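Anyone have tokens for Choline dehydrogenase-like flavoprotein? Sequence:
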Amino acid sequence: MTTPDILIIGSGMGGATLAYALAPSGASILILEKGHQLPVRPENRDARAIFQRGFFRPRESWFDSAGRPFNPGNYYYHGGNSKFYGAVLTRYRAADFDGLAHADGDTPPWPFRYAELASWYDAAEQLYQVRGRLGEDPTEPAHGGPYAFAPVPDEPAIAAVRDRLKRIGLNPFSLPLGVDIEQWSRYGRTPWDAFPDARSGKMDAETCALIPALAYDNVRIESGAEATRLIASADGRRIEAVDYEQDGEVRRVSAGIVVLAAGAVRSAALMLASGVGNASDLIGRHFMNHNLTAMLAVDPRFTNDSVYQKTFGLNDFYFGDATCGPPLGNVQLLGRVSGAILKADLKWAPERALQALSRRTVDFLIMSEDLPDPKSRVRVDGRRIVLDWRRSNMTAHRGLKARMKASLREAGFPIVLSHLFDRRTPSHQCGTIRIGTDPKTAPLDPFGRSFDHRNLFVADASTLVTSAAVNPSLTVAAMALRTAAHIRETELAR
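Reply: yep, here.
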């Protein structure tokens, strides 16, 4: 049984960022990762393999509340889900930390406000080499300085769409992106959204955090290692050891500090299966998963010959519409939706016809906040993961779709098609082990430390109090940097 100073379970955005920040401390760090490094292979840029054949999807099933199995779209590789993410690295809006009144309910305030996380956002943007431009988005919160890199440029067809939206009074802004488009394009002229990154230009958790962390002699990773049980000490105050399965064997590791970073579903499921950290009876509850709709705007006179497309977004309806109603959400371009991608959902249609359609469309992602509800939860049934997700805030989502459809028609797209994503799409899962100041209402303190076990921390999206209506990756990274600083100051300084 090995005994590192720090054990991190998971190498996604939270785990890898935490390892990066703690590596210079000299503490011995072991990372357990269920997956392996994603290899360089032709399927990485093959839309048919990714979308039609599900080449990279995990060979596992989760279950809904009725006991029906489904194949989740979560990935197990060095870098976790960030290997496939759209590389949008957006800050929560400042008001998202305050608690907001929504059409279908209210969100609670965080245990701290935006100002507490602002400098950590600055640091996370530097670490993940974010490309962007300030001053275009009226909802953008205060930054400590400009982005270090210019935004990823619009392709000509997308620049024309941006101009159309400006002419009708909207404020398209350059998405803050973690992608080196020149390097990415050298490996293949494809989108990056949902295409896996084998260290080919996407600024994901492996590229920017895990690989630099592993350059330190005191940091190592065990691949193909799935944590199965957290073992509490006799007095229940600490996590004494962790069991994991690797190469068909059950192994055990003990560590001074244990950090869970396996994702909002798996971190909660591991704690529930282990019977630890749940004096509040809130582990697994408040599961949130953004309400997402793909929207295709069609103009028979328009030719979309772009390759990657995903360069701008809209927050004009983030805090409400022109009538000053409740918040509606965020809109951003999707990665280019080709005929091969459309074929995955429209199996009856000829791919050639779908490709002809795609040349006349521009593709958007409509995103609304999912509100925290204790009845929306992750449970375990033996070794089964049960996901009882209860959608919320659909009044806002329908309102955002209606406003965006009207705007697109005004901008010259007479046909607007839409498709609501289901539970098979991991739409920014979060909230299942949230932070707070009262152990009766939250399992973790504001730094992600368990109220029940002093040496147990959580550093992934499960800690988020609310989902806001933006991609959570940068917030997870910023909070991991903050948690790492707290661990250095309170645990490693002794």
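Residues 473-492 form the longest helix (20 residues).
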